Amino acid sequence: MMAACATEFAPAERASRERLAAQAACFTASPLFAELLNRVPDSIVILNGERQIVYANRAALETAGAATLSSVVGMRPGEFWQCRHADESPGGCGTTLFCRYCGAVNAVLASQSGRFSVQECRLMRRRNGSEEALDLRVWASPMRVAADDFTFFLVANIADEKRRLFLERIFLHDVMNTATALRGFSFLLGTEENKPWREMCIEQVGLLTERIVQELEAHRQLISAESGDLRPKVETINALELVTEVVRSYQRPDLLNGRQITIAQRCDSVDFASDRTLLTRVLGNTMKNALEASTPGAVVTIGCTKVEDAVAFSVHNPTYMPEEIRLQIFNRSFSTKGAGRGLGTYSMKFLTEKYLGGKIAFQSVEGEGTTFTATYPVSWAAVSSGGSSS
Description:
Elements (H helix, E strand, L loop, with lengths): L16 H12 L2 H8 L4 E5 L5 E4 L1 H7 L12 H4 L22 H10 L4 E11 L2 E16 L2 E10 L1 H31 L8 H29 L7 E5 H12 L2 H4 L3 E4 L7 E5 H18 L5 E9 L2 E8 L5 H4 L17 H12 L3 E7 L3 E9 L2 H5 L6
Parallel strand pairs: 7-9
Antiparallel strand pairs: 1-2, 1-5, 3-4, 4-5, 6-8, 9-10, 10-12, 11-12
Helix pairs in contact: 6-7, 8-10, 10-12
């Protein structure tokens, strides 16, 4: 076994090349075994005690973009599927802080304790120069072959299931609730007794209709972005005016729910080039999350400043974010609000870094709160040349 490495979660040690070769031979020596696993449409890999791949079926190799089995023997799952955190630690997959909340790593560790485990894994992987979100369900089972312990590891893509859950939430919960309220105000408009409140009802009908359109448009936009069909519409935007628009759109009692929004004292009125619709979506989601994370009476602060050749937007709320949330906040489908959610922060980062040439980050300090900062180049030429994108 190779020398020990530092780790922040799972053991980092790896098997020697000789041991890996011997373990791999246990499975490649049987043509029937390979034939059976290659007929399974889902990805299957077999891991040794160091969580390294000693066998992968055809579906797994195709999913990972690997040409041959020999080229992946010795890799760990996160390295095989190109997880963005796999190379952040010398120990590799399983050894970073982020790995503490990875369903794949935890399932494998459970199997190494002799237990069968089924978990979900939200993975952001680097592929073809960009990042791709994967929603996976993993099954890990202990197995023993030739006096060695292994993990039989099956992986299924559940992206369609997650999208269905999200659509069900939109149509069966959010949009239905809004549509029910819309029906109520529309009914009141047609009654004679409602004349004194007619203007209020008309205003509410307009607001509720706009909310439905925004919910559906946000999801349509994200589908288009993830499929690569989205094309930014660039125009000149004033940062301070955009901040003011976002604040105005959220200065409503039903959205504030006892909270307050303020514009930072120091704001720069700087013009820059970007897509107004996408940028408004990002800042709107940031504002929405900040309000939802805050308690009644709290103050959420938004601002904009010029930083060299870029403009930075910041949204601060006084709530501290615990580690479990901090380390998963940008993962697709991760949410503290229940099943069928989790696209807000993911879409903020995805749209910012893939389509707007910017960077988005956050800092959460106990006693001070949480600040999200989204930074965009002033010139669109920097975006189109790829100089500012991740």
